[in-house]
Write a structure and sequence with these properties.
By secondary structure, the chain is α+β, with helices and mostly antiparallel strands. The protein has helices spanning about 15-30, 60-70; strands spanning about 1-10, 35-45, 50-55, 75-80.
Length: about 90
């Protein structure tokens, strides 16, 4: 299934650090066999990061995000979505 993650934060966070942390998290989640990052988009000035994941274990992904949020100060919402092809 495909999952959309919407991430926000309140305190200032340098873009380079945020991207590095996001990629490290993605690698760790993949290494654990939980999910694979498909894409991510960043609107740093709006304090928004969107990411899409492919997983068969949404609960494990939620647990991983909860731990990441506790460590990083991010707030995340995860939701299933469908990719609709544009013709």
């Amino acid at each position: 299934m495909l999952i959309l993650g919407v991430n926000t934060w309140e305190r200032e966070m340098p873009k380079e650090i945020l991207v590095k942390q996001a990629l490290n998290f993605a690698n760790a989640v993949k290494a654990q066999g939980i999910a694979e990052l498909q894409d991510f988009w960043l609107a740093h000035d709006r304090k928004l990061l969107w990411c899409t994941w492919k997983t068969e274990n949404l609960q494990a992904l939620k647990v991983a995000f909860a731990e990441m949020n506790k460590q990083s100060g991010l707030k995340s919402e995860l939701m299933p979505f469908e990719k609709i092809p544009i013709k």
